């Protein structure tokens, strides 16, 4: 019997954990599936496009040939030639020099999808075909809200972890300060005073309705409805004093559908609670800035291992531009396949930056409220006291 009860308890605990984790896992799995589907679609559309020689490309080649024929002996000292070459290549379209099958393979398309729904948009990879552009707009229309939903959901988890860590740190700090300020003699005196006061305190529990009626047995009720009221109160008191029975288990044993409905309602409540913990978060903005700095510094130290054209400062700049979803595109990646494995880092980093922006927004609102109230107090007319 003991083993079966333990087995049932373990089974119910596993079910509770599963249904608690289910909403968070549902969002992440949906985003991963959405990214993979987008990669398949874009790789099929953009990699199979026909490369046609446009009139602009022919004009570009003709001008380039003319400049090459007029090539002077000393190229480095001829400023007009360098300027003409620079102006000519500024008019060139990067699509002319890209092989679609190499750029739009599965990993390249997956990297493009990640830049779309994270709103980074580096600009070095973009759809060329008309159907690819329409698909990109439709893909972003549904992908960006899904990404923000994942950010909000995972932000609740990070906010809970940060708030708990910060509260534990404050408790530890207060204990250390209390131990430093409190000497041995004063602490012992305080403990003696506490023990004396606690020994003198007598807690009188409130009487139940039955005890009140027994003590007031000689008193007759004024009206009949008062007697009915007291009987109803006594019946409710008896129900409260009886040992609580697990009514839900009795219902579950007779009708298992009620248990399923209760589980489904709990899961729906978990969906409704998205964003609540993020609203409750109250930590110093300096702490969040420090967390962001450490987080980006760790990635900036790892990224140059496979991106040889980057040093620490360039990688730090690239990670900051990526996590803040600015995405200038001035710093390009040579190996986007490796950076795709870094996608978890990007999502968590965007959540941390999102929390920092939320805290900064709350602080700005408080600051604006103080400024407006201060200006309103200054502009209010002062009360004049007239003599009687």
Automatic annotation (TrEMBL):
One of its GO terms (cellular component) is plasma membrane. It is found in: Membrane. Its main location: membrane. It is a multi-pass membrane protein. The chain crosses the membrane at residues 17-42, 104-122, 134-152, 283-303, 339-360. Residues 96-158, 291-361 form the Potassium channel domain. Keywords: Ion channel, Ion transport, Membrane, Potassium, Transmembrane, Transmembrane helix, Transport. GO terms for molecular function: outward rectifier potassium channel activity; potassium ion leak channel activity. Belongs to the two pore domain potassium channel (TC 1.A.1.8) family. This is KCNKI protein. It comes from Emberiza fucata. The gene is Kcnk18.
């Amino acid at each position: 019997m003991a083993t079966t009860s333990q087995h049932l308890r373990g089974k119910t605990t596993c079910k509770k954990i599963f249904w608690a984790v289910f909403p968070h896992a549902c969002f992440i799995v949906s985003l991963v599936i959405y990214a993979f589907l987008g990669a398949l679609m874009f790789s099929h559309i953009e990699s199979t496009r026909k490369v046609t020689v446009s009139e602009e490309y022919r004009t570009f080649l003709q001008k380039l040939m003319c400049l090459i024929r007029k090539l002077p002996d000393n190229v480095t000292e001829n400023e007009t030639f360098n300027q003409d070459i620079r102006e000519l290549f500024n008019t060139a379209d990067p699509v002319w020099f890209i092989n679609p099958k190499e750029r739009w393979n599965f990993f390249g398309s997956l990297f493009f999808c990640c830049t779309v729904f994270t709103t980074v948009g580096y600009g070095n990879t973009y759809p060329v075909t008309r159907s690819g552009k329409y698909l990109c707009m439709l893909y972003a229309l549904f992908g960006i809200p899904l990404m923000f939903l994942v950010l909000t959901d995972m932000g609740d988890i990070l906010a809970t972890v940060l708030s708990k860590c910060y509260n534990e740190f404050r408790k530890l700090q207060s204990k250390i300060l209390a131990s430093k300020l409190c000497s041995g003699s004063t602490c012992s005196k305080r403990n003696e005073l506490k023990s004396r006061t606690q020994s003198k305190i007598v807690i009188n529990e409130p009487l139940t309705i039955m005890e009140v009626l027994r003590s007031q047995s000689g008193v007759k009720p004024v009206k009949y409805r008062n007697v009915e009221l007291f009987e109803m109160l006594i019946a409710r008191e008896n129900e409260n004093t009886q040992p609580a029975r697990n009514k839900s288990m009795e219902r579950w044993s007779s009708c298992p559908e009620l248990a399923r409905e209760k589980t489904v309602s709990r899961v729906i409540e978990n969906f409704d609670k998205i964003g609540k913990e993020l609203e409750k978060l109250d930590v110093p903005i300096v702490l969040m800035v420090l967390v962001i700095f450490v987080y980006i510094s760790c990635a900036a130290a790892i990224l140059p291992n496979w991106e040889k054209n980057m040093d620490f400062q360039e990688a730090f700049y690239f990670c900051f531009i990526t996590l803040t979803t600015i995405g200038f595109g001035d710093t390009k990646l040579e190996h986007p396949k490796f950076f795709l494995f870094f996608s978890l880092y990007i999502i968590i980093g965007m959540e941390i930056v999102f929390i920092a922006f939320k805290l900064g927004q709350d602080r700005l609102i408080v600051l604006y409220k103080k400024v407006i109230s201060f200006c309103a107090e200054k502009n209010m007319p002062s009360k004049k006291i007239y003599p009687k």
